[in-house]
Design a protein that fits this description.
single chain; elongated
């Protein structure tokens, strides 16, 4: 066989091998891209479902946070109509107890997000803006809210002890008195005790800041969900 034919044969064989390897590589790369795209939409869809759940939870928390703030405000207000205003927003003395000697925490559903983080599947989402908003939502503002919950819990414990030490009848008489009488007794204690009123003002401040960060949290949630929905529509 002439040398030129032999070289041509080897060249053709080499070309076929290279093309075969390249084609296999391209097919595998294409398959991986499709799989990554599928994983991305799976992650985004799970986040969207959970954000909808967090939305409902956050709105409920905001209503309760705001109501607790109004209860404390009316209890400390010197307005002669404050008791009437207070009675318009409550149905039982238990709601006053929650605002004064208890606290409301903040624990939105995070199972899907935590699973995504632990499994490392967030890497399939290329959008830096979505990742940044996720960090703001679940790290920055979530931590700010719960930092104020912790502060509120500390002052709440001090108020409970202060009431038990100085106004034990406030607790003991609740079941025997009418709602109107219980409110008047508590309000009288507040108005005639600067320390008690100061404790409540401190608690009200932590509650107000907590609500402020909840609003920022919710704004971030809405922005994040809007971006995720736009990505899902493009599918």
């Amino acid at each position: 066989m002439p040398r030129s034919n032999s070289i041509l044969k080897y060249f053709i064989e080499f070309t076929v091998i290279v093309l075969g390897v390249s084609a296999s590589f391209w097919v595998e790369e294409y398959r991986e891209k499709l799989q990554n795209k599928e994983e991305k939409f799976k992650v985004l869809n799970n986040l969207k479902i959970e954000l909808d759940e967090i939305d409902v939870f956050s709105l409920e928390r905001k209503l309760m946070f705001t109501k607790d703030e109004k209860i404390l405000y009316h209890l400390m207000s010197e307005d002669q109509h404050s008791i009437d205003s207070l009675k318009e927003i409550i149905t039982s003395y238990d709601e006053i107890n929650i605002a004064v000697i208890d606290y409301r925490g903040f624990g939105p559903p995070l199972n899907r997000y935590n699973s995504i983080i632990s499994e490392g599947t967030l890497k399939f989402v290329e959008s830096d803006s979505i990742k940044q908003l996720l960090s703001q939502l679940h790290n920055t503002f979530f931590k700010y809210i719960n930092a104020n919950v912790s502060d509120e819990k500390i002052i709440q414990q001090k108020i409970s002890l202060y009431l038990a030490d100085n106004y034990p009848q406030t607790f003991l008489d609740q079941d025997q008195l009418s709602l109107d009488e219980s409110i008047k007794n508590l309000r009288s204690n507040i108005m005639n005790d600067a320390n008690f009123k100061a404790y409540l003002k401190i608690k009200l401040r932590t509650m107000t800041v907590k609500t402020f960060f909840l609003e920022k949290y919710y704004e971030t949630l809405v922005d994040l969900r809007d971006k995720i929905e736009k990505k899902l529509i493009k599918r």
